[in-house]
Design goal:
This protein has a single domain, classed as Metal-dependent hydrolases (TIM Barrel), CATH 3.20.20. Helices cover 45% and strands 13% of the residues. Strands 6-8-9-10-11 form a 5-stranded parallel β-sheet, sandwiched between helices. A two-stranded parallel ribbon has the order 1-2. A two-stranded parallel ribbon has the order 3-5. Helix 6 crosses helix 7 and helix 13 packs across helix 14. The longest helix is centred in the middle third of the chain and has 18 residues. The chain is globular and about 65 Å long.
């Protein structure tokens, strides 16, 4: 939040700012409103969602009375923290999933261009442990409170099935509100594909031969039927971004299948994808994608010159891999972003 004042002076035209946890939801809203008041153009597209790193803080139980706190964390964490009351005491009272969805729906209604994000699955992360005296003493007051902030990690993880539950609920909301989503996936690409197949079930697109497509196009009223169908709420988002995609080519083939009813995009950042990653792997992935499904991002937690530099660098990296002339490639990436956000 200390860098918000830099936003009006940035080269990056629009920031797609993701919420990840409880504190973020209001901060994203406040930042959007303050920047909108200072600019005639849309400098921020707000995104409201609950990240898998914080999914343990959400309860699907009908009641979340204080006495249920221990039972909740015992049911969603591995290994069980039942004998570690000191650790449980550092965790917040769980928030009902129904309350999360209701609040997010209200924010999406307030901001018609807002997205749902950042949501997803993560098999590798561990929950931060309690603050030590040394960590408290060395806290950086420029970092927005609520994140790890350099704390040591505990050995506790969130059960994959609980992460899936929180992800599916937010995908359903995105479908209800007809909003695009940003999906986080770490060591969980296959699991994300499985969840998407579940929410897509029964809505798969019919893949026709070219001859049958031509016949259908000539049929009277076909376009009106397609338009009516598109306006009906679905249990899945219309567009999905696999954020800072770190998987291989194989999941891409599944996510890009013509029968999938959501349009799936793949975003790349210098911090994650071009920073020590195997050059051959990222080259194969970027080259395997249609040019109209590639996005770029900074994946940075602050605004300002550093973000601008990262955006320019990843744009140049993508253009180099695809063999695009820079101006042409930058225009393609801009068009892709507008289509992903606005449809």
């Amino acid at each position: 939040m200390a860098s918000v004042s830099d936003i009006p002076h940035m080269e990056t035209a629009t920031l797609t700012i993701m919420a990840t946890r409880g504190d973020d939801q209001d901060l994203v809203q406040q930042t959007t409103e303050s920047c909108s008041a200072q600019s005639k153009t849309e400098r921020i597209v707000p995104c409201f969602g609950w990240h898998p790193w914080f999914s343990h803080q959400i309860s699907n139980a009908a009641s979340t009375e204080p006495q249920n706190k221990r039972h909740h964390y015992d049911s969603v964490l591995i290994p069980s923290p039942a004998d570690d009351q000191a650790f449980i005491d550092t965790l917040p009272d769980p928030k009902p999933l129904s309350e999360l969805i209701s609040e997010t729906r209200a924010r999406l209604e307030k901001f018609p261009t807002a997205l749902v994000g950042e949501i997803g699955l993560d098999r590798s992360f561990r929950i931060p442990g309690p603050w030590t005296d040394e960590e408290i003493e060395n806290r950086n007051d420029q970092v927005t409170p609520g994140s790890r902030e350099g704390r040591r990690l505990s050995h506790y993880r969130v059960k994959p099935e609980h992460q899936r539950l929180i992800l599916k609920a937010q995908l359903h909301l995105a479908g209800e509100m007809n909003r695009a989503v940003s999906v986080h996936s770490v060591q969980a690409h296959g699991a994300v594909v499985d969840v998407l197949k579940e929410v897509w079930a029964g809505y798969e697109r019919v893949v026709l031969s070219r001859r049958k497509r031509d016949r259908q196009r000539d049929a009277e009223g076909v376009f009106e039927e397609e338009e009516d169908e598109a306006s009906t709420p679905k249990p899945f988002p219309p567009r999905i971004c696999m954020h800072s995609y770190s998987g291989s080519v194989d999941p891409i083939r599944q996510l890009m299948h013509k029968s999938n009813p959501s349009d799936v995009y793949f975003s790349f950042s210098n911090l994650i994808n071009f920073n020590g990653a195997p050059a051959r792997k990222i080259a194969d992935v970027v080259k395997a994608l249609p040019e109209n499904r590639i996005l770029i991002e900074s994946d940075l937690h602050k605004a300002g010159d550093e973000l601008d530099e990262l955006m320019e660098k990843v744009a140049r990296d993508i253009c180099k891999l695809r063999g695009w002339e820079l101006r042409h490639g930058a225009q393609l990436l801009a068009d892709n972003w507008r289509r992903f956000v606005y449809g």
